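Dear all,

This email documents one entry for the complex benchmark we are building for the journal club exercise. For each entry we list the sequence lines for every component of the assembly. Then comes the predicted three-dimensional structure of the complex as a token string, followed by one or two observations. Please use this as the template for your own entries, and keep the labels exactly as they appear.
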Amino acid sequence: MALSTPATIGGGTAADITRALTKRTIDVKSKVVEFLLLGSLALTLLVLLILMIDLIQRSWSVWTDRPWSFLTGTLNSQNAAAGGIGQAIRGTILLSIIVVLVAFPLGVACAVYLEEYAGRSRFARITRINVRNLAGVPSIVYGILGLAIFVKAMGGLTGGSSVISGGLALSALVLPIIVITASEALRAVPRSIREGALGVGATEWETVRSHVLPAAAPGILTGTMLSLARAAGEAAPILLVGAATGLLRTGQQSILEQLQGGFTALPVVIFSYARQPSDDFRALTAAASLVLLVVVLLMNGIAIWLRNRYEQKW
Amino acid sequence: MTVVTSSAAPIDLTTNPRRHRKDVAARWVFRVGAWTTFLVTILILLTLVVDAWDFVSKLLDEPGGLARLTDIGWFPRRGLYDIGTLVIGTLLVTGIAMLVAVPLGLGVAVYLAEYAPRRVRRVVKPAVELLAGIPSVVLGYFAIATINPQFVTRVFSSADKAFTLMAAGIAVGILTIPIIATVAEDALRAVPMALREASFGLGAHRLQSTFQIVFPAAISGIVAAVILGISRAVGETMVVAIAAGAVGGGLRSWDPLHPGQTMTAAMAALGFGSDQVAGDNLAFQSLYFIGLLLFFMTFVLNVVSDLLVRRVREEY
């Protein structure tokens, strides 16, 4: 058996091999695949662009004719020319306030307990699994929860189909998101910060309050912002809870009456207008959609910006 | 060595009782937060199981009994609760959504993880994440206002002019692209650099390394991303409620070019009364039965996806 010398591997000479290794060849297959991948990215982003342009175009007449009366007017499913989203914006703001008041403290408390107290215990492990599963439950199931528990079982307290019931249903929906994002933020705080506090004699609570929570605040705020955006855009849960899609009574009411009375919200109005057969409502639907989209995307944008800015401070 | 013995009074190491009480109280507050998550789960399960059982047991008392769950046609007002019709609608919408979202989502993921220069990635990744923020009602409106008339009816001349499952499926697909893209990208980026370097070192170019080395190494995470996307698509409500026409009368039709009904859209229609189903009758209670079914479908999908994601993390 003859040993092949490096000069004749594969029948080629050293010069051939050198040429094969150094000559520039255009790899067509690679280029095509790269182009396809880039194309899928471009197409994905194009969808967002088309959606925006489409909504602006369709709602143009509303913005040029009567922007103010549209933004402040009342819900009207009969006459498109008189319909406005004032009540819906108010409802969405009220719902968001309830979500912040209920889901934020509970979610952060759960995350603190998981990361700072329970650690690797079995309780913590089961809680984490539970939270992850809750995060995957479809939003309409939270609507069923709201309908059965907050509207029916606790109707005396919440006033039935009210802002309180809707807000509680949305709070349950975003609770797992807040827990997961807050947990991540807490986990990113280095041990040394805790040890520093504990080392000088702080109690666990003092360590958490004055060291861990401030350090994790940007991450926790990001998660809260994301979950608020989610709550503001969700329609299914509050529709099941019974948000008004038609005329909504207005007038002088006390705060408690308002909280226990009928309500509506931006996504609900969009749903209601979108199903109106007449063309007059098309522009209104697009205008309301644009308002909601801009608000939600702004909140998401701020959250993403916050996260990227404060990422890896340590 | 001498043992040093201190003759001074022993130092009191017990915490100030006020600080101690605060510490104990805080721990309880945090614990209550953790329990709340279980409360939510228990309430959801309790509601669904109790009311779904109520529905089934009442159905048993009525003429026809359980056969009404399988007789063709979804007409809750007339007492026909054909789950099959709804499941077919859900499968159609989910299938179309995946045809849109899997290639695009994975394409975005592979590009961002393997091809994109750092600067491009820094700008584009947030934009893709922003896409995840589009409210589903807005996309539902986009589906009937634009996707159906401008796209579906032009490509398929036999398509319904107003509502099609196809348009709803495409819109749901758009909603799931960012989910698939971000989870799959995480999986691809979790593949250690050493694998790529080894591949490049052997003379493979980027295409070969990406699809013969990195992609197979991240496959469980990628499958997890797709399953998570399926789970989201199955549970998506508003797009279908707006764009699919909410007509469940079909005879278990597999035609995506016509209006149809999915599990979620049927629940929505029952829940907010567009089915003209009043209050607390049997038809309304079918809502809980479908809800339970939906809950378990998504639960199984989520658990499988979660297990697969964990496998990636443990391997490297």
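Observations: Chain B has a mean pLDDT of 85. Chain B touches chain A through 89 residues (CB under 8 Å).
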